[in-house]
Write a structure and sequence with these properties.
1 helix; about 15% helix
Amino acid sequence: MKKLIGALLLCLHAGLVHAAGTYDGIWTIDDLPEAGYLMISENNGRLIFAGLNPPDFDGNRRWGASWGDIKDGTVRLTRLINDNIDAVTDVVFTSATTLTLTQKSCRPINPNYVCSLPNGVAFAATKIW
């Protein structure tokens, strides 16, 4: 698992070096500061969305990555790497520093995990770096 995480981080870093996309950066969900942080990297119409969540039921921090093709500021994210959930999320960028995300579906994979966002509810997020 550590090798897989390391490889993803190297790919994300390489993408950031070449991408410098409009939406690249660290984001936070406005009404859910306890939800953790989101990192967005955009390159050649592909968006990678990685989330670092607060400690889970066992005290370990969880993270996951999703990806999708971005067009006209809109992207449907599907699971790339996540040990706990299989989720589909729609993201609409309302500006270079704001977005809304709406989880369309979520299925726990780990029996001790529950989906942290309700399906169908839009959440605003803000770029903080």
